[in-house]
Amino acid sequence: MRKTIFILISQFISLLLFSQESSIASLNIRGFKKTKTSFIENVITSHAGGVLDSVQLDKDIIRLKRLPLISHASYQVFYSHKNSYNVFVNIEENFTLIPVVNVWTATNQQFAYKIGLYDFNFLGKGLEFGGFYQNNGYDSYSINLRAPYLFSSQWGIAINHQNWSSEEPLYFNEGSSNYLYNNKSFEVLGLFEYNFNHKFQFGVNFFTEKYKYLTGLTSDDIPINFEIDKILFKLIYDLDYLDYNYQYVDGFRSLLYTQFVTTNNSFQDKFFIAWNDFFYYKQVGKKGNWANRLRFGLSSNNDSPFAPFSVDNNLNVRGVGNIIDRGTGVIVLNTEYRHTLIQKGWFAMQSNIFVDAGTWRNPGGRLSDFTKSQNVKIYPGIGLRFIHAKIFNAVFRIDYGYGITENASKGIVFGIGQYF
Question: Per DSSP, what are the bridge partners of residue 298?
Answer without folding.
Answer: 274, 329
